[in-house]
Amino acid sequence: MKLKVSTRGQVPPFKVMDVMREANLLAANGRDILHLEVGQPSTGAPAGVIAAAQKAMAIDKLGYTDALGINSLRRRIAQYYRDIHEIDLSEERVVVTTGSSGGFLLAFLSAFDAGDRVVLADPSYPAYRNILAALDIEAVGVLATAEDQYQPTPALLDNVDGNIDGLIIASPANPTGTMINAEEMASLTAYCIDRGIRLISDEIYHGITYKTPGVTALSHTDHAFVINSFSKYYSMTGWRVGWMVIPENLNRLIERLAQNIFISVPALSQHAATAAFDCAQELDENVARYAANRELLLRELPNVGITKFSSSDGAFYIYADVSHLTNNSEEFCRRLLNEVGVGIAPGSDFDRVRGISSIRISFAGDTDTISNAISRLTTWVSN
Fold this sequence. Notes:
Blueprint: H1 15-28, E1 34-35, H2 47-59, H3 71-85, E2 94-97, H4 99-111, E3 117-122, H5 126-134, E4 138-143, H6 154-158, E5 166-170, H7 182-195, E6 198-202, E7 225-229, E8 242-245, H8 251-261, H9 267-274, H10 280-304, E9 317-321, H11 329-340, E10 342-343, E11 345-346, E12 358-362, H12 367-382
Helix pairs in contact: 1-11, 2-9, 3-9, 4-5, 4-8, 10-12
């Protein structure tokens, strides 16, 4: 008997996760594997978060919470915007989500209908495109270049054929680490407001910057969805907790969606995340390590013959052109992993047109790992 299988579920794999699975299998069989494939801090949650979790387990039954999140966490997130961005934000606009992924799903469901068209710049985080596809929303890629910092611009948007219902931006961006400055953010938000385009701003790497702080879309508009997470700067990937700031008029709509899809974000993660904002000293030490790793790669990659790469002004990635070494980035990464035990991500995960000759290197790990990976890569390429 043949049973129906949904076509909506036929999305491409998240290739980074496939590389991680292969790397973990090799490590389980005794191989010495250096993980530069996954955008995950090598540190665990900060001490204050662990202490808050232990306290919550001792005094709270940790049952379901309100679908939009516990009040103490929503208030603390609103306070973050007052402290960091000087924005007076109502906690009613804050939605606690199951990581940023839960935020994207809620944003897409509440903002777009099947058949709508959402623009994103390539290269970009593959889950944007794949979640949109699963919801029958068309992802429209625009080919951004190094001259544009791999970011969308009004000029690129003007060249899109057909209507635009939404725009996704990311600053700092995955995989490039490039950023949108205040002037560029003002221009993009104005473009969207003037044309009735719903803006979704991915700001999950805020806090991990090397030249200037990240600019939030909330500084220029109240109509955007702003997505953030405790996974990156706050080093809480496995806790699966993030947040979203939403347009005020969508509060009840999103609450109903969250009630039915998620019920609530895990209570323990919410109580723990409330303490994360008080752990800046420990977290900034992580950022200092990322900065040292970044400088190491920027200095040493040209010695390997890799000279064309993104500016990496934020996040913990370098996106590099390896067209002189391969025209099949997936095979390149597969061989590098199997032959010398270095995991990196193929560019085809982020850009389906040009990614065949690009790679993404994550420098979220410890500095010894980065140094050893460069040494192995140098020997491998020279052979």
